[in-house]
Amino acid sequence: MTRAFNFCAGPAALPTEVLEQARDEMLDWQGRGISVMETSHRNPEFMAVAAQAEQDLRDLLAIPDNYRVLFMQGGATAQFATVPLNLLGKRMSADYLDTGHWSSKAIKEASRYCQVNVAGSSADANYTTVPDASRWRLSTDAAYVHYTPNETIGGLAFVDIPDTGDVPLVADMSSSILSEPLDISRFGLIYAGAQKNIGPAGITLVIVREDLMGFASDACPSLQNYQLVSDNDSMLNTPPTFAWYLSGLVFQWLKRQGGLKAIQALNQRKAGKLYAAIDGSDFYSNPIETAYRSIMNVPFRLADDALNSTFLSESADAGLLNLKGHRVVGGMRASIYNAVPEAAVDALVAFMADFERRYG
Ligand code: PMP
């Protein structure tokens, strides 16, 4: 069996070792004669899986004790509403930075619950850069400031963590969590859908500072209430047990790779090679201002869009899958999350050079 090189933006590649372990344990987990999916989430053996996953995540990210880790459902999209429903308290407004598709979605959903102040936007630069912090119009009475550190579709990433003073900072880290070490203490709340660097779709990670819980609006569904979810160890109802288990295997795999410093070095090397291939050619291009290029999602265009379908079919034949860009930007996109090996990037770079030779 050969595994293809998978550049999907999400649900994305999972480490082969993790899939092998899940396969080996599928029919007979821990010698019990059943799979992990076939037992109660309240049995001690599953509770141990859940607790270990949390502990491994805490170790990887060095999460301080005054932060709770929640495993929720509904993806990052549910969090677009869950955040204002929980964090507004008595306040009426929140600040949002607008840097592309996903921050725009977060803004649109939050606008149903509060007054959104768009404190900075790079829309007029077609989202090819991060708006200059000196020009942000942060308000003093905002309940929180929300931003998207890595725009998955645009391939745009913040370099610095915004300084918002005493106003809690909220980040949608769906496509960047666990790609590099992170100073959690700078954030009030972090959320991420699992299906890029964490595990399979179906589970949503929330890391929240304890003092921000307990202010949910009466209209907030119980299942989306951070305090209730936390009080019930993320088992207010039946959690997605298999996704939780598999995420735990990914955390253990990450530890075996040497943790986030080691994975960051690898991610930077992978991205460096791909951007060098793009920049070193007149045939490929990436529009993002160099300093703000994502190391996770690398969109690129061919000199002639008429060649797109040929590029996609030939790359797929060469075992390089899911390179089609998002429909709103077109072109190509290579997502190179933690589980995408350096060999995949090497193979893509070689394919790109060969394609350019034949069609450029
Ligand atoms: N935010 C970001 C940055 C994303 O990349 C995505 C998914 N690609 C979402 C939000 C939406 O996530 P979900 O499908 O888990 O709701």
TrEMBL record:
This is Phosphoserine aminotransferase. Catalyzes the reversible conversion of 3-phosphohydroxypyruvate to phosphoserine and of 3-hydroxy-2-oxo-4-phosphonooxybutanoate to phosphohydroxythreonine. Binds 1 pyridoxal phosphate per subunit. Keywords: Amino-acid biosynthesis, Aminotransferase, Cytoplasm, Pyridoxal phosphate, Pyridoxine biosynthesis, Serine biosynthesis, Transferase. Its main location: cytoplasm. Gene3D superfamilies: Aspartate Aminotransferase, domain 1, Type I PLP-dependent aspartate aminotransferase-like (Major domain). The modification N6-(pyridoxal phosphate)lysine is found at K196. It comes from Kistimonas scapharcae. Pyridoxal 5'-phosphate binds at A76, T77, W102, T152, D172, Q195, N237, T238. Its cofactor is pyridoxal 5'-phosphate. InterPro entries: Aminotrans_V_dom, Aminotrans_V_PyrdxlP_BS, Pser_aminoTfrase, PyrdxlP-dep_Trfase, PyrdxlP-dep_Trfase_major, PyrdxlP-dep_Trfase_small. It catalyses: 4-(phosphooxy)-L-threonine + 2-oxoglutarate = (R)-3-hydroxy-2-oxo-4-phosphooxybutanoate + L-glutamate; O-phospho-L-serine + 2-oxoglutarate = 3-phosphooxypyruvate + L-glutamate. Pfam families: Aminotran_5. Pathway: Amino-acid biosynthesis; L-serine biosynthesis; L-serine from 3-phospho-D-glycerate: step 2/3; Cofactor biosynthesis; pyridoxine 5'-phosphate biosynthesis; pyridoxine 5'-phosphate from D-erythrose 4-phosphate: step 3/5. Homodimer. Belongs to the class-V pyridoxal-phosphate-dependent aminotransferase family. SerC subfamily. The keyword Amino-acid biosynthesis applies. L-glutamate binds at R42. It comes from the Bacteria. Transmembrane segments: none annotated. SUPFAM superfamilies: PLP-dependent transferases.
